[in-house]
Amino acid sequence: MSKKRFKDILYAWRVRAGLLGIILVAILANPNGSSLIAGFAVCLPGLLLRAWAAAHLRKDEELTVSGPYRGTRNPLYLGNLVIGLGIVVASRSVWVLSIVTVYFLLFYPLIIRMEVDKMRNLFPREYPDYSQKTSLFFPFRWSSSPSQKRKFSWELYLKNTEWRALLGTIIFWLIMIGKLLIF
């Protein structure tokens, strides 16, 4: 199997693997009241970061350099990492830590690499300068480039279907609370 074919298969399976991972996490989690509160406290900033990013993103239309995109080229993925850490904290399980770690290490380097290639192709003039001035993942530095003058847009939030991440996260937390109360 060619390297490109393997990448394409891996990329296609990222969502299915994530759903399977969440099911396993729900089964293997061993939450208590304190872990749920701490996990939610860690998770909430990840959800807020994703919402902030989605409310600025004009996917494939323009290179977004406003909002959290001034500090990281991948705020949605960084938000996912923070949400994942919150899930690990809430779950109190080495198995859950292992699942989340393997998932992120297996899929996210590939996803980010493919995203970089896509942005280079879509925005060949703007992206090289943006990538030089803005961190790939962790916001170690904020772009000194003039930011787009754009505010949080509920219209973009909804258009980018960010409500699905919120809904999925709410369902997960309800399952964890149910697991705590039932078991």
What's the quick description here?
The protein has 183 residues and is an all-alpha fold. It is 70% helix and 0% strand.
Which keywords apply here?
183 residues, mainly alpha, 0% strand, globular
The domain count comes to 1
Q: In angstroms, what is the radius of gyration?
A: 18 Å
Count of distinct strands = 0
User: Could you estimate the helical fraction of the residues in percent?
Assistant: 55-70%
Which sheet architecture does the biggest sheet show? none
Mean pLDDT: 91
Number of contiguous helices: 7
- Estimate the global geometry from the Cα principal axes: globular
List SSEs in N-to-C order: HHHHHHH
Strand content: under 5%
Query: Whole-Å distance between the termini?
Result: 45 Å
What class, by secondary structure content?
mainly alpha
Question: What ranges have pLDDT less than 50 throughout 5 or more consecutive residues?
Answer: none
Provide a descriptive summary of the structure in words.
- This protein is an all-alpha fold and 183 residues long.
- The chain has one domain.
- It has helices spanning 3-28, 33-54, 75-91, 94-122, 126-133, 154-159, 163-182.
- α1 (3-28) runs antiparallel to α4.
- The longest helix is centred in the middle third of the chain and has 29 residues, at 94-122.
- The radius of gyration is 18 Å and the shape is globular.
